[in-house]
Amino acid sequence: MKCFVLTLFIGLSAMLYGQTSGDCKDLLLDYSNFVETDSTIWQLDLKDASGTATLLFYGAFHSKDESHPQFEEIEYKWNADKFDIALFEGPNRGILSTKEETIAKLGESGYVRFLANEKNIPVATLEPSPMSEIEYLSTLFPIDQIKLFFLLREAQRVRETLGMDKDQIIDHMQKLLVKANAISPLEGTITTLADLEEAYTHYWGNDREWWQAPKEWFTPSGNSSETGGIFTNEINKHSSSFRNLHMVELIAGFLKEDKKIFAVVGRNHLPMQAAALVCEWEKLIGISHGGN
Predict the structure, then answer these.
(1) Alpha-carbon span 13 to 6, nearest angstrom
(2) Residue 167, CB half-sphere, CA atoms under 13 Å: how many?
(3) Nearest-angstrom CA–CA distance, 285 and 291
(4) Rounded CA gap, 256 and 182, in Å?
(5) Rounded to two decimals, what is the model's pTM?
(6) pLDDT given at position 22
(7) pLDDT confidence bin for 288, thresholds 50/70/90
(8) What's the Rg (C-alpha) of the chain?
(9) Would strands 53-60 and 261-266 be described as parallel, antiparallel, or unpaired?
(10) 56-110 pLDDT, tens digit each
(11) Around Cβ 282, how many Cβ atoms within 10 Å?
């Protein structure tokens, strides 16, 4: 059975990538060209000369099942070294009182915060600001499609991961609209549930209701003409690429500050970022060794 984690060590990284000149961000992969293979990298484990971790970047399955073996592995790797900061994907939704509750409600993102809280280690999100992401996407897509994408994706998330029914999703969406309408680029479109229903019907008709938008519409590797998303997969693709760039810049910044970093992200982000991060690391190694 194929192991769900592959580890890249610094010695192997030099052999695989070995590119420390130019802009490391040019090594970010595009989802359109990505094909998973047996050698796909799902984890980066970069260590200094003493063997101390400087970056442990773990590509996780999005799971809220406490019995999933990744949670035991995440805990083992967290305790195997000392870290200065823990980075997680998504917004900071806090933690619950126990490991089991935290995983069941908040998945791997919450578990990272739970582990860090036990050792009083600072945490930070890997995400860019919503404003910067929306401003970027607005150069590529109409603002109504962008807002519709985020609203429908959130409805799909709470339906499938939290088990919300229609009434619960509607209540959740009303609260979300209040927050979304306060973001200036989004304030002038789809401001009410009635607007949301009308916009959804405009693009997708009446075959299903807006709160039933399928998961396949929100994968960066998908093609909207094939999934039926019309534009959702393409927005997700550009959103994920923008986020990958931000994550690389964020982690590179912490590396330059000599921080020991523990980070967990949805696994499909890892192979997109791995080469760029190794490149940034090798450039820092070269600087610290005087270029020798």
Answers:
(1) 13
(2) 0
(3) 8
(4) 35
(5) 0.86
(6) 62
(7) low
(8) 20
(9) parallel
(10) 999 999 999 999 999 999 999 999 999 999 999 999 999 999 999 999 999 999 9
(11) 20
